[in-house]
Amino acid sequence: MQNGTTPHDEQRSEHRGTGREAIAEPSEFAEKPQESKILSIVIVAWNCRSQIEECLRSIQRIDLKRFETIVVDNNSTDGTAEFLASIGEEPRERLGLRTIFQETNAGLSQASAVAVEKSSGEWLLACNPDIVFTEDFGKMLDFARSHDFPILVPQLISSNGNRQYCTREFTFTRLFFNLTRSGRLINRVLARNFFARESHYNYILFERPMLVDHPVASFLLIKRSSIRQLGGLFSLEFPVYFGDTDLFTRAAAQKVPIVFLPAIRMFHQMSYSRAVLPPEIVQFMFTNGMVRYADKWGKFPTMLKALLTIDAIVAPLTHARLPSKSDISRSAYALKGAFTP
To answer: Which of 8, 89, 135, 221 gives 20 to 30 Å between its CA and that of 282?
Structure first.
């Protein structure tokens, strides 16, 4: 990509020299004026310098028409923001690129809402920066426009070639046995991985489009009218984790179908943000999001908190070694996450 800044960069603050943008309250599901764009690709970037470059390059390699790409930098410190600002005029035009720089990182959901507010496409693609597009995306968009399904997801493939599986709706038992260390241990030793298999549709390799409860949300194509119907994309109640789970639960409550397209494949590095965040912070945000989700949707939150407390105490003792300082710290942050409103 060529160097040089352009006037297409969005600036939401007066401090243009900082290259950062102040946070504003979004109104992401407001009605949009009629626009000619079919698609808005929305990407939230945070400390993903190499991933976002490859993602944007992969978009340029496919043949898309009447689309825009909106990237919100969530106060990166690794050179991501500088890279986005340096993208030259030619690739910027090919991507229909608009960049928004935030001065504070208020989470994935808030940054996504800002991007949705700025978008104008009939369809919106919420895309992680560690996605690599393939030519299959054109087929996915054609399928979306020729069928009456408002939410579609592809088969995501990890860098090692493994498929990433959709799951069923998260019940209380699925939350505990799949998302806590002690629950997974009990599931593996006593239940022979029954809960993992059952939650993931028995790891069936689907051969045709299927309705699913909870796909991997790293590459999510959704109709703008459905975003309005569901009251927004990712709720600000869930800054980072479980925003997707909440979205899919809202969709199920309103009988909005989610279609998985197994023949459409995209590459997904997966969990890059966990590599740049301290594990204790990840544990806090994940546990807190789980409890918030259980409380909002009546998944026995009091009982879940009790089990999360036991899990935090027991987890450091489940390793085949003495507990490390990091193990104990993560457990302490898990407890804090479980009981932080």
So the answer is: 221
